[in-house]
Amino acid sequence: MSKLSKNAKAILRVENICKCYNTNEILRGISFEIKKGETKVIIGPSGSGKSTLLRCINQLTIPDKGSIWLEDEEVTQHMKDINRFRQKIGMVFQDFNLFDHLNALRNVEIALIKVKKMDKKEAQEKAIEELRRVGLEKQAHLYPAQLSGGQKQRVSIARALAMDPIVMLFDEPTSALDPELIGEVLEVIKNLAMGGMTMIVVTHEMGFARSVANEIIFIEEGKIIDQGTPHKLFTNPDHERTRKFICKIAELYGETANNK
Predict the structure, then answer these.
(1) What is the H or E stretch that residue 31 is in?
(2) Quick one: fold of 10-95+166-252?
(3) What is the mean pLDDT of the chain?
(4) Angstrom distance (rounded) from CA 90 to CA 69
């Protein structure tokens, strides 16, 4: 995990976010903040609201109540400028969302041309730089059908990084991958964490969470049940429910819950 200044200021604040679909309460008053260079990992059972929370932060889903603040600007009060904020909040999804008719290079550079209005040469140089950053410079000419799942996800990470975001959001980035491909994606994310990228990661990979998180947040039924350092949550959580969840996930993925 990256080292943070004790006086570091919160770069993103989530305040009392609530979201309902009809009578189904998905998020019930979620609040936390993240400082520059920090990695927060969000864990919790399926259906607990983790993905909805990330979508609310990026305003792909509009919360019913609460506010999102980015660098002291309230995102939720500037819907006319939402694309400006989305450029600052990178999002990596479970299922890659690549354009099948474009090669890896074009998948990364297209937003630079269309959104940032870069010229073709500048966009191409930036795209190659980001593909190199995720270890895929030599695959730049390949199309998604020619790439493995891990390579596709790394292209999607490069695409998000190319926009120079302030915060990166990862929504279970390895859940669609075969087990042997998970490591290459987690290694890229670890390197970003070590390099000081500010990140919020939803994952079930407990070993990864333990190694990169400054704080782990456990969400269940749309509420924060527990939060703290990896050491605290893995060795002395506030709630028995947290311990049972971590042990169950560790057992499922063949890990030991109290590994250092």
Answers:
(1) strand 24-35
(2) Rossmann fold (3.40.50)
(3) 91
(4) 15
Residue 144 to residues 103, 171, 173, Cα–Cα distance (Å): 7, 20, 17
Grouping H, G, I as helix, E, B as strand and the rest as coil, residue 158 is helix
Q: What average pLDDT does range 233-254 have in this prediction?
A: 86
CA 21, 46, 194, 140 dihedral sign is negative
In angstroms, the CA 225 to CA 241 distance is 8
* C-alpha atoms less than 13 angstroms from C-alpha of 194 in its C-beta half-sphere: 8
Name the residue among 232, 184, 227, 235 with its Cα closest to residue 205.
Answer: 184
- What are the tens digits of pLDDT across the range 27-44? 999 999 999 999 999 999
pTM of the model: 0.91
DSSP letter at 37? T
Q: Residues 168-179: pLDDT tens digits?
A: 999 999 998 998
Residue extents of the structural domains in the chain:
10-95+166-252
Helix 120-133 with 149-161: angle, nearest 10 deg: 130
Report yes or no: 216 and 233 within 8 Å, Cβ to Cβ.
Answer: yes
Q: How does residue 4 score in pLDDT terms, banded at 50, 70 and 90?
A: low
